[in-house]
Amino acid sequence: MAKITLDNLAHSYLPNPGHEDDFALKELNHDWIDGEAYALLGASGCGKSTLLNIISGLLQPSQGRILFNDVDVTNAPTAERNIAQVFQFPVVYDTMTVRDNLAFPLRNRGADASYVAERVQQIAQMIGMEDELNRKARGLTADAKQKISLGRGMVREDVNALLFDEPLTVIDPHMKWELRTQLKSLHHEFGHTMIYVTHDQTEALTFADKVVVMYDGRVVQIGTPQELFERPAHTFVGYFIGSPGMNLFDAQISGNAAQVAGASINLNKTYAPKGGKTQLGVRPEFIRLNGEGLGLPAKVTRVEDVGRHKIIRLDVAGQPVSAIAEEGATVPSENTAISFDPAGINVYADDWRISAEGEAA
């Protein structure tokens, strides 16, 4: 297990980067705590896999250092970093049995045969392949092969870190849930430092102690699922986390009030943005439908009943807005008005969340 430190780390795939936009991974300075489970979450192309491959040693960064437990491993090969990595698509030895695939990392390090047998049995049970241990990997389905890859990544108990690069892409939906649960159990049992790359917010939020949200090559927030939901540090976090994501309203802010589409919104707190584009971020859960004439004018365009609640799609001054109402709530047929629960309002300047006066950042 290891604390992982990213020190002035950045990477460009260009030979002579001259501008920040030339970097696929922009400058990072973070300490990732020994023994915690992290999810790297973001859209395709945001730098998640680049960062993971730098941590694993498959890629040399253009600048900066990476340290394991304060030891510089920037130039150390993968084999010397004592990590296990599971990739997006299966990497297995087709001519070996499932048993031998799972045992390979342990046998390769001279582990005792009885321990190997016991550990392989434990992992096979975890991935649901006890009955296929003696089958050759050749001819197995893609999801079965990926389960072998996962198992081989998890079989060692002495690694500094376990790295997962979108490992459940080819796994069927029911098995995804089972394997995520098993990964969390493994983490709680052995306390490995785990880093899990995904573009799926459900995977990230159900797996990780801390979610690392990446956007345009940068880490925009590291936090618990609750922190990401309640206080998104960047508008992208609000948009990407939640279903539906956070609504954003262009606003003119002065003190404890905001003007949105000609209506005055009470913020209940005082803000002093330093110029730039200012917006209010309000999640659908904090949008209130009040009835026509009682707030910001809105028009109902669609209602989606998802069983536990209704998602109300609205048009507010030409902008699409989402609200969530309880299953039994009455929904206006067309014209209505909305207001915001002040407890659910976040204020942004140039896409970054700003704090109210007297509020901790």
UniProtKB/TrEMBL annotation:
UniProt keyword DNA-binding, yes or no: no
Keyword Membrane applies: yes
Highest taxon listed in the record's lineage: Bacteria
InterPro entries from the UniProt entry: AAA+_ATPase, ABC_transporter-like_ATP-bd, ABC_transpr_FbpC, ABC_transpr_MalK/UgpC-like, Mo/tungstate-bd_C_term_dom, NA-bd_OB-fold, OB_MalK-like, P-loop_NTPase
UniProt xrefs under PROSITE patterns: ABC_TRANSPORTER_2
Residues covered by the ABC transporter domain: 4-241
Record's keyword terms, sorted: ATP-binding, Cell membrane, Hydrolase, Membrane, Nucleotide-binding, Plasmid, Transport
A Pfam family that the UniProt record links to this protein: ABC_tran
Top-level class of the enzyme under EC nomenclature: hydrolase
Gene Ontology molecular function: any one: ATP binding
EC number: 3.6.3.-
Entry similarity comment: Belongs to the ABC transporter superfamily.
Protein name: Trehalose import ATP-binding protein SugC
Biological source species: Sulfitobacter dubius
